[in-house]
Amino acid sequence: MASPKDILVSLFFAFGLPLVSALAFPGAVGFGSIATGGTTPFVVTSLADSGTGTFRDAVSVSGRNITFAVSGYINLASPVSLSSSITINGQTAPSPGIGVMGREVSASSKTNIIIRNFRMRQGNLDTDTGKSAFNMGDASNVILDHCSVAYGVFDSIDAVGAVNVTVSNSIVALPIGQQFGAHLETGPATWYRNLWVSAHNRQPLTKANTQYINNIVYNYQAAYTVANTGGDFSHDIINNYFIAGPSTTSAGDDYFQIDANQQAFASGNLLDSNKDGVLNGAAANTIGSAVVLSSPWNPTSQGLATLSAADAYTSVIASVGASPRDQVDAFVISTVQSLGKTGAIITNQASTGLANNGYGTL
């Protein structure tokens, strides 16, 4: 008779289940929950762009567990590259919290990254149109939780070649430039209880085996996307809510470019297409021309889908993003709550009308 260990190993190879002795943090879910982060304490004591005690200094050495003694925006003069085995505990910053603005944060080719309660707001202060708000290309074992990503130029989140990724309880909103949400290839990946707002496309673009559970997508032109040249992948798409807004030209593009090479399990998804200010969606479980799966491709997916699409909307609106909410996230939330009445896909963060050239104040 097979031992429990042998059974777990078999499940890992059959379904891609991570084998871990501990989660990245209590409550972590999905494929990125195996991230180990760092353990060596380091306290950020300055909002300066560089120098002793700065965020750039903090992430320059592997193995650090980073906390914050300061709050506010760190105005980056150049991109910041993370080291491997890093934990960024934004929730430790004094009120009103911590964030970076103006340049890309990159975990490219790194491993074991944990980022929580952190704001990444790129915007047009970055003149490099090939950069994204957060880049984890070719990275592995990465989890973003309760983060707020806005004003991405190339993508909000770029994750080509990324392996074992979770983005959970986060806001991905108001991309400028290409006006794209997230681009992930390789995987596997988990997108869980996120709020996607006012993007042209890629919410996300996923060329990977994917769990997409309890997400809310508002004011999209194209939402969940694979692209017809994306290869052959499996998708668990459960209890998500797609809500049309003023920029939505075709509500039926809630699923976009999903061909017969794909396999999808879809259950409990809703589409509110009428832009009438009331949450009153109808079932939306036809995933392009994908092969229909009768059960989730990953055995953990159904257990993650503890909220209906309607309950996910309530929960996400109440708790998503970095805490406490700043002006940018409050603006995003109020836009979604209009349920079709307000919202725009923008090219410049200043068009939000918020203070500090659209970045808001921290």
Automatic annotation (TrEMBL):
Record keywords, A-Z: Glycoprotein, Metal-binding, Signal
Cleaved signal peptide residues: 1-22
Molecular function via GO: metal ion binding
SUPFAM superfamilies assigned to the protein according to its UniProt record, in alphabetical order: Pectin lyase-like
UniProt key word Translocase: no
Coiled-coil residue spans: none
Keyword ATP-binding: no
Gene3D superfamilies, per database record: Single-stranded right-handed beta-helix, Pectin lyase-like (2.160.20.10)
PANTHER family, alphabetized: PECTATE LYASE C-RELATED (PTHR42970:SF1)
Protein name: Polysaccharide lyase family 1 protein
Organism expressing this protein natively: Collybiopsis confluens
